Request: fold
Amino acid sequence: MVRRVVGALILASPAATDAIYVGQVTPIIAASYALAWLVPGSSAVSAVLGGALKIFPGVLFVWALRTRSSMTAAVALAAVIVLAATTWLGIDSWFAFRIAWDNAIPQCVPPSLGSFRCGMGAGGVVVGAAVAVGMSLAAWRLSSPYASFAMLGAASVVAAPDIFPNYLLILAVAALPLTCHVLHRSLVRTHGHHGA
Reply:
């Protein structure tokens, strides 16, 4: 019951409705996080699928390593995606992607919520990446899988050049297992306490 209520609240949240309303890929990426949690063996594939849309879902590879997910299907899928993209768009598209990446200027004004890049300039890119890597390594070492998964969600967003409100959907989905776990334990304690 708790999971359904929390899940419904996430779907009704401004982060979800905004992402759906403006046609963002964020709900698809958030779904890749949900799939990685619900079917840990799919974590590496989820990382590739999410990473094909945006770079930061690649953090799910850490979850794949933690859950000992097979990399075979993910490597095959990544090879197919790269081959298809190269065949369709040509080899020059990879260089164009790099040029676009170098020329990208973050918005840093509403609806952006800011970022390390917004607050620190070009050096913020390095700081954001370092924080994301540090959080990912910490998540790998955490004993609680719930806290680890939530931290990976945060790590995947923190390095973005602009953090937009719909990115909060990824944080919410990544934190959902931890939230449900904490609420469930709280309810069990309360129920057990009253029953005593």
